Amino acid sequence: MKKIVVLTGAGISAESGISTFRDSDGLWCNYKLEDVCTPMAWQKNPQLVTEFYNARRKQLFEVEPNSAHVKLAELEKEYDVTIITQNVDDLHERGGSSKVLHLHGELKKVRSTANPDLIYTLDKWEVKIGDLCELGSQLRPHIVWFGEDVPNFNLATRISQKADIFIVVGTSLQVYPAASLLYLINDNVPKYLIDPNAENSYPISNLKIIKEKATAGMDMLCKELISK
Fold it and tell me: What are phi and psi of 146, to 5 degrees?
């Protein structure tokens, strides 16, 4: 069974109604990144950071996977598929994908500030200052903030380099190190980039560009990859 590796970003979840930080409206418009998405922000104002992620989490509980998430899951009928996502939502899992690696953390999880290996899954959207781990320390979002290491990147690299087909969907390839994965794939591996705003050319061999949003692009690609 051939292996497909997929790198996804905010664009795939945007079609489900999840705000991205590049949106001119929505959840992000009232915040500066440095105030809510850095370790310094947490040290300075954990209440603000907690409230921000509560709002994002509340939104996540209100949205559903879209057809692009479902189409990626359908590829598992004929391929060994691993999703590497920059997204912190759980829409891939809810869309049916069985192997999902989150590079930047998970919104529905929190972790201990005393021991980062103590990670808890939430069944509610609200976390409060005063919610503690079993060691008695405050719970923080299980998110990789700007300025923090991306612990799953080495694993993502190893997975990507085993791909027989590599797909990029819903990301502008502006966020590193995730964006570098496309450049690490062997020249002979077929690659697909689904992005309505993609440049016409990249210095990458065997790359097919599909200038569509995630839902339309995945519909087109599945018709190509899945047997009739």
Answer: -55, 130
Q: Which of 69, 92, 102, 104 is catalytic?
A: 104
Cβ pair 159, 133 in contact under 8 A: no
Q: Please give the full DSSP string across 198-228, using - where no structure is assigned.
A: --S--S-TTEEEE-S-HHHHHHHHHHHHS--
Report d(CA 143, CA 167) in Å as an integer: 24
* The model's pTM: 0.93
Identify whether the C-beta of residue 162 lies closer than 8 Å to the C-beta of residue 155. Answer: no
Is residue 69 among the annotated active site residues?
no
DSSP character for 173?
Answer: S
Res. 127 pLDDT band, cuts 50 70 90: very high
The domain limits of the chain are 3-225
Q: Which CATH number fits domain 3-225: 3.10.450.50, 3.40.50.170, 3.40.50.1220, 3.40.630.30?
A: 3.40.50.1220
User: How open is the CA angle 192-13-183, to the nearest 5 degrees?
Assistant: 30
